[in-house]
Amino acid sequence: MKSQDQFYRKKDYKSNIDKQKIIDLKNQKRLIEIFDRYGYPNKKIIGGYNIDNDNVDITVMLLHTNDSIRREYFMPKVLEYIKHGEASPELYANLHDQLLLYNGEDQYYGSYENKVDIPTNELNKRRRKIGMPNYGYQKWRLNTIYPDQEY
User: Fold this and answer.
1) What are the backbone dihedrals phi and psi of residue 55, each rounded to the nearest 5 degrees, phi first?
2) For residue 113, which of 132, 149, 138 has the smallest C-alpha distance?
3) What angle do CA 16, 19, 20 make, to 5 degrees?
4) Cα–Cα distance, 148 to 42 (Å, whole number)
5) Average pLDDT for residues 55-78, to the nearest whole number?
6) Where are the extended beta strands (E) located within 34-138?
7) Residue 5, φ and ψ in degrees, nearest 5
8) C-alpha span between 114 and 93 (Å, rounded)
9) Quick check: 91 and 75 in contact, CB under 8 A?
10) Judging by beta carbons within 10 Å of its beta carbon (0-12, 13-18, 19+), is residue 23 exposed, middle or buried?
11) What is the tens place of the pLDDT at every residue in 86-129?
């Protein structure tokens, strides 16, 4: 599914946008079936994230779902999975913030590197509600661990 998701996006996307939309809808339908039958396809369900030397994380496919289905189905499901420790809060933040950004609005959680016009203390309150670390923590952590590289 992930290979299909990226097939036209990696080459000549604009000429094949209709074909890509068909793939995205097919993957969306299959993800709903997987969520309904098995729950969130995390490490417990599918094994490690590097199966056959291919990262099987489904985030990119969820980011290519229909806006209304994402809002009404996937985002509430992912919130439930987060509460049970089955999905990452960053996934929810990405799903939410991407919708806002694509619709010309500001991010809510600051999950993308775009400029955030929200006071940091308010942003951190929002992030804490879904279990995310404070804004800027990941960058600080990587710079501390790998001081010779800039993040």
Assistant:
1) -65, 125
2) 138
3) 85
4) 33
5) 93
6) 50-51, 54-55
7) -55, -40
8) 14
9) no
10) buried
11) 999 999 999 999 999 999 999 999 999 888 889 999 999 999 99
